[in-house]
Every structure is written in structure tokens, then in C-alpha cells.
Design brief:
Helix content: 40-55%
Strand order of the largest sheet: 2-1-3-4
Largest sheet: 4 strands, antiparallel
Shape: elongated
Number of helices: 2
Low-confidence stretches: 52-76
Number of domains: 2
Number of strands: 4
Mean pLDDT: 74
Order of helices and strands: EEHEEH
Strand content: 15-25%
Amino acid sequence: MMHYLSRAFVEFGPFPTEEMLSFQHRGLLKDTDYIRAEGTDAWTHVGDWPTVATDVPRGTRTKVKAASTKSKAAFVKKAATKKAKKAA
């Protein structure tokens, strides 16, 4: 099912249910947001939207964490190389 997100009177979407759950799981939805299902005109406050946390795709969190770890490791490696050049 597809959903629309309303934030500050601007409508975004449609987004699949899994992506909306991912938004909620990652804390991207605000208390002032509203959600409606595609094909309806009824907006539901984000706090009243029925969700199940286990429906969030498992790979979403680990991919973000892995990317940040990789970029941090690359930064540390570059910094160590620069220090080695200065010492020489």
C-alpha cells in the first residue's frame, strides 16, 4: 500500500508502507506530520498511525551503520598517512 506524508501543509509521496515504517524507525517523522493512504482523503496524525516496528526492513539500519564505519575508517587512514609524511 502507498502512503502520502503531509508536513507543514506540503504533501510528499507516495511512499510504500515499508519506507514509511523506516522513516518512523529512523526518527524522521515529526509530531506535526500527517499520513494518508493512497486513494483516501482522510489524514491521520503520525502518532495515531498504526505501525509495527518489526515490519521495518532489516537491512536499513545495518547499511547506514556500515557506511558510516567505512567512511570513518577511511578518514582515520588518511589522517595517519598525513602524520607519517610530516614526521619524515
